[in-house]
Amino acid sequence: MMLTQENLVLTANTIRGLAMDGVQAAKSGHPGAPMGLADIAAVLWLKYLKHNPADSTWADRDRFVLSGGHGSMLLYSLLHLAGYALPLDELKRFRQVGSLTPGHPEYGHTDGVETTTGPLGQGIATGIGMALAERMAAARYNAEGAPVVDHRTWIFCGDGDLQEGISHEACSLAGHLGLDKAVLFYDSNGITIEGHTSLSMSDDAKKRFQAYNWNVIEIDGHDFDQIDRAIRKSMRSTGKPTVIICKTHIGKGSPNKQDSHEAHGAPLGEEEVRLTKRALGLPENAFFYVPDEVRAVFASRATKMKRSHGKWMRTFKQWAKANPEKAALWKTALADTLPADIEDALPVFDPAKPVATRSASGIVLNALAKAVPHLVGGSADLAPSNMTWLKDMGEIKPGDFAGRNIHFGIRELAMAAVMNGVQVHGGFRIFGGTFFVFSDYCRPAMRLAALMGLPVIFVYTHDSFYVGEDGPTHEPVEQIAALRCIPNMTTLRPADPTETAAAWVAALKNKKGPTALLLTRQNMKVVNRNSYPAASNLEKGAYTLWQSGGGTPDLTIIATGSEVEIALAAAQKLADHNVRVVSMPSWELFAKQNSSYRDRVIDPACTRRLIVEAGSSFGWERFASRHTVMITLDTFGASGPFNELAKIFGFTAENVLAKAKELLAR
């Protein structure tokens, strides 16, 4: 079916009608943005977006990201009309429990939704991560005459997205790298919840993006010809991402609420909905109305996209036959398949040579990277300190995306969200590093990674007050408790280099959510695993590292990370008592074990327990018993040599021994 101007107008107005009806039925939601963006969406989805609703996981599909996730009825309307597995009845259940149309789009919940969005700005950064992954995959796999990776990332954003600081971080990185397959549509309607954007914003968006090294196009977001030309121009851009600044009217078509903040975050009201439908030429009393003409143009587009998909499949098969090694790597990478013998790749550490777990992590990471070729990552300008550099494996830089090391710059939040984008795009397993105290900057994106079940790996070094001279601003205290309270987040705080190696394997095997590795700056003794239990016990979250006797102990000392060393040293001086030392690198993994195992490690009959961790005591109550003492840190740190701070804060074998004796005397 030929696409005409009349079809586009009718499609856009149909989207407006669906958005109004969905929000009105739910008595909750945001109709204004979908109504304002409907014209742009109609042109993009009916003429340019490369996708196949019959195969929503097509590897070379374009990615569409609605960063302002509050406008979700726009996306749901488009997915329904395009033919994804989203029936009209689900649009009628907008924002209802168990529906496929939650208030904000959720990855893995609704067919065709590429990423969870809602916290403003994160959709931009995640989309930029997708665009980065596309360029990296193209550099790896494309062959002459066979561009098996060649797609774009289209991102819709609004004033709120650009006010959030993450937008600066992410757009600066995208401009530096020249991600020319990223196109950002800026819905510049000048309205936020409180009123006009002039209340708090006077940015010149054009100058801002030009300064980022972006291609900038300004259009009337309701002029179909301008929209069409802008998209075509963006597709010709090389060496720069493109922002299309679209001047739009929020609540477009509403006689009384267009250009008003009243159209932003509340239903228009039944009477205003009727008036708006009348103004748009839609049946006033028809709800969730979709004209046959609109279904026809989307069906026609779907047929064309199926042909494109089929053509790509034929190209892919020819490419795979001509490039068997690349094809094998492609298959492994998309499935995130790990070698069955991955533990064999782990280095062996000499018990006579203490090593900081951050340094051990770097050694392990480089060994694993050789065995897992789709493992990529970087750091927020801290690779020499985080030990996250993959040696001799190249680096990502403007115009060159063949390497495996990414310079994220000092942009922690954008780094974390870009990591999410790379991961959700598929074809890579990504890690990113910074100091543990700066996990606070990463937290919003970490939370979304946990919500989406993305197996990204966060490498956090300098994990306690042992940072020393840098002082309390750089010494994490409450951060470990903050991570542990995020659902579906796995934290691993290994005790020594051997546990660090096991932690990396556990992180790679965790395919259902993010993992955080918490690593020391200071050297740690290497536990001789010929005399002590295997470090692979880390996968159980906690295990008995040492016990002086058998059966129920008189005292159980539970420690994590660097404190395991002093706990073990103290326990071994209590020759007259039956003392057990438990290494507990992960609460989350321990909680997944059956009760029988958990009781074997932390015997309920042992009521004397000593907990040792250089961080907040918050949450440790769950492991407390009748007689429990905690050596933790519930104040901020201080500046000074770490060995002196350890004495001041009580993190010495001598203090652990003294507290243990006090408990045993009870």
Tags for this entry?
666 residues; alpha/beta; 6-stranded parallel β-sheet; 5-stranded parallel β-sheet; 23 helices
Strand content: 5-15%
Largest sheet: 6 strands, parallel
- What structural class do the secondary elements suggest? alpha/beta
Q: Provide mean pLDDT, rounded.
A: 98
Report the strand count: 20
Number of helices: 23
Give the termini separation.
85 Å
Percent range for helical residues?
40-55%
Gyration radius (Cα, Å) is 28 Å
Overall geometry comes to: elongated
Uncertain regions: pLDDT < 50 for 5+ in a row?
none
Strand order of the largest sheet: 10-9-11-12-14-13
Written description of the protein model:
The protein is an alpha/beta fold and 666 residues long. A 6-stranded parallel beta sheet has the order 10-9-11-12-14-13, with helices on both faces.
Overview in brief:
With 666 residues, this protein is an alpha/beta fold. 41% of the residues lie in helices and 13% in strands.
Draw up the topology in text.
Elements: H1 5-26, H2 32-48, E1 63-66, H3 72-82, H4 88-92, H5 122-141, E2 153-158, H6 159-163, H7 165-177, E3 182-188, E4 191-192, E5 195-196, H8 205-211, E6 215-220, H9 224-236, E7 242-247, H10 270-280, H11 292-322, H12 324-335, E8 355-356, H13 357-371, E9 375-379, H14 383-386, E10 405-407, H15 412-425, E11 429-435, H16 439-452, E12 457-461, H17 479-484, E13 490-492, H18 497-509, E14 515-518, E15 523-524, E16 543-547, E17 555-559, H19 563-571, E18 579-583, H20 587-591, H21 595-601, E19 608-612, E20 627-631, H22 642-649, H23 653-664
Parallel strand pairs: 1-2, 2-3, 3-7, 6-7, 9-10, 9-11, 11-12, 12-14, 13-14, 17-18, 17-19, 19-20
Antiparallel strand pairs: 4-5, 8-15, 16-18
